Amino acid sequence: MKKLFILAALIFQLAAAGTPLRAQTAGASPLETKLALENSLEKRLRLVLSEALGTEDIIIIISAEMQEQGKKAAFEIMPGIPEKERMGERSLSSTLTMVKKLSANIILDKSISEEDTKLATKLAAGLLGLPPERQDLINVEKMDFRKARPMSLADLLAPPNIWSITWILVVAGLAAATLFLFLAPLTKIAGAFVESFNAKNTASSQDRQERAADIQDNTPAQSAKETSAAASADGRKPPFWFLDTANTANLAFIMQSRSVEDLTIVLSYAPGDTASKLSEALYPRSVEALAALPAVRLMPEARVRALEAEILSALDYVVGGEDKALTILSGLDEAVQEKALSAFNRIDPLLSRRLNASVIKLADLKDLEPAHAQALARRLPIRVLAAALKNSAYSELFLAKLSAGMQERFRQELELTRAGSPGAYKAERAKVIEALRQMFSEGFIPPKSGNPAAPRPAAAVKPAPAAMTPAPHAVPPASALKPATPAIQAAPPPAGQRAPEKPAISAPKPLAKP
Predict the structure, then answer these.
(1) Which domain holds residue 420?
(2) Can you say whether the dihedral through the CA atoms of 123, 124, 128, 129 is positive or negative?
(3) What's the CATH number where 115 sits?
(4) What is the pTM of this model?
(5) pLDDT tens profile 230-244
(6) Which end of the chain has fewer surrounding CB within 10 Å, N or C?
(7) Contact (Cβ atoms closer than 8 angstroms) between residue 74 and residue 94
């Protein structure tokens, strides 16, 4: 039942849709029918001829004459039955539209041959359904189709194209000039930035290499410190644990008034580098102590601890020293530094000459060789050198010692570096002076003229103050020392322990009193 209902609904919709279609067809005017027929035939004929001739340059005009023919419907009257009367006229006829005449005008390009023209006429007659004897209704003509010719160089140089090209060239020139004027400084800045970045990386790599070398050099000292720390793991510190290279000068001043035996004890407990510097500072008195070192003997603990306490206490109250004065002078401003050296020259000319030869100043840049100046420029970033020498009297002298590439970079940094605060200038100057000092200490740069060849001997040092206890006896010259090796009695063993059975160890003879 449901299927029948759906089928009936579909039939009803189809019937309703077909009614307007028939009404539209029946209501079409003769003119619309003619135009539709002509357009349809033109499209079909153009499609066929373009495929056959291989060109789209075809114009087709179809003319159709239509004829309308009326047809009355037959009305059958049954005998004996009267006709039903109705109001108005009875309409029982229909109109049929028929084609009376067809003609075609075909326009082809002149490049088409006669054979193709005949073929086009034959195809048009067959498509339109014209008999062979009525092919006169097909008119074929030829003409030159106006096609857009390609543009040549002469067309570009003729107006109005020439004005467009001129305008484009002017705009391009202005754009190039703008880019050159505004971007050229930026290009230089970028190049300088890249070079400074590469120099910084080079300096960083050199610093890493120097740190690695320092670590390798400090490995023995670190191992000695670790050994001392391991030995004092029980809470006790080894004797003379406070001795290092930092207080060598003060220690040498203290040991000038001590006995040779005290010096021998200190040299025995001091680290290797500290003992070497102390022996050099106390020469020739240190020769006697060094001569007593090969003999092994046991010193009383109270004796060693008492000497350790005296030296530790005295180190805290030693004031002065050339190294301290040199450190302070190196950190002073240039003007104050010159005034201090002038004052030293009036007080102690010899001390002034030594300090002047040891102090590293920014003025030393003018005395550098070109190779040394270039090495300094490779160690430090160009930015640091430019900041330290900005508005300085040594900038041009230092610049003349550099290579051509370094000179260009240094000039750019001088132009780009702004004058900073006094604190910033002092910090940059300290970096340059520290690099110079390192090159002097490494021996890369020879020492300045006027530097004494050897340090002042210990005998020339002023006598110690009265608070320091003098040696109990005079010391003979080193050439008169003739160490002997008699047997030395070992100290008695502690109570409850057995004395070890060892041969006697030789020791030098005691020094004779004058």
Answers:
(1) 183-213+360-471
(2) negative
(3) 3.30.300.30
(4) 0.36
(5) 444 455 788 888 888
(6) N
(7) no
